[in-house]
Amino acid sequence: MKREIQAFIDAAEADEIQHFTADTTEKAFFKDPDGLMAPLAAFIREQIGKDQLAQAELKVTDTDVSVRLEMSVLNLPMQDSKTIGKILETSEEADLNVYAVIETPDINVSGLRIDALAPADTYVDQAQVADQSLHDWLGLQIEKLQAAETNKDATDVQKADAVKPATTKPAAKKPATRKTAAKKPAAKKTTTRAAAKKPAARKPAAKKTTTTKRATTRKPAAKKPAAKK
């Protein structure tokens, strides 16, 4: 099954697409994804047989999860069909493929995952192989969603634990008043310095007594005239 790329872009923008929609809950989706996606796969095969472009969507109503099967010429969602014209030569013809798409903030940073399941003709001719590919793909996406949910629960618990000690922090401010009271002994340092200065004034008195002793030792030099007799 083929389409001219520009013809596909025009059809997508004009919403000349056959649509199928079903609703479910997260619990039911996690429990039986294959059973819930089976009507979507059947609808896509029916439209391929009619040479019609098609999109089938499963909405998980109690979450923001959307799981879709889409036909396209490139691994981009139908909603981004304008981008295809920037990547491929629009005058050329291309095979139509069936893609599995999941959209939710919890799946990855971009909030979207899209993977090819099979060319449109193969999706009909080798239905079992295509369904197995969808089964494996759904399993991987559900694991990611469950892991994200577990991480959220763990993060919420950590945040709750972190908030509790915050209420006891103001009690730790009481010792701050004791620290200011401990600064009073600083006044004792001035008394010790004053006492140290008094002995320093007594040292010059000791030097005066030594100068008087040296003056008395010089008197015997007057005995020299006695030798002339």
List keywords for this structure.
single chain; 229 residues; alpha+beta; 5-stranded mixed sheet; two-stranded antiparallel sheet; 51% helix; 19% strand
What this model shows, in words?
- The protein is built from nine helices and seven strands, in the order βαβααββαβββααααα.
- β6 and β7 form a beta hairpin.
- Mean pLDDT is 80; it is low at 190-201 and 205-217.
- It has helices at 5-13, 26-31, 33-49, 81-87, 120-125, 127-163, 175-181, 188-200, 203-217, and strands at residues 2-4, 18-24, 54-60, 65-72, 93-95, 97-103, 112-119.
- The chain is globular, with a radius of gyration of 48 Å.
- Helices cover 51% and strands 19% of the residues.
- By secondary structure, it is an alpha+beta fold.
- The strands form two sheets. Strands 2-3-4-6-7 form a five-stranded mixed sheet. A two-stranded antiparallel sheet has the order 1-5.
Order of helices and strands: EHEHHEEHEEEHHHHH
Percent strand equals 15-25%
Please describe the biggest sheet, giving its number of strands, its sense, and whether it closes into a barrel: 5 strands, mixed
Query: What integer value in Å does the Rg equal?
Result: 48 Å
- Uncertain parts: 190-201, 205-217
Range of helix content: 40-55%
H/I helix tally:
9
Strand order of the largest sheet: 2-3-4-6-7
Distance between the termini: 159 Å
**Using DSSP, what is the number of strands?**
7
Shape label: globular
The averaged pLDDT comes out at 80
Computed structural class: alpha+beta
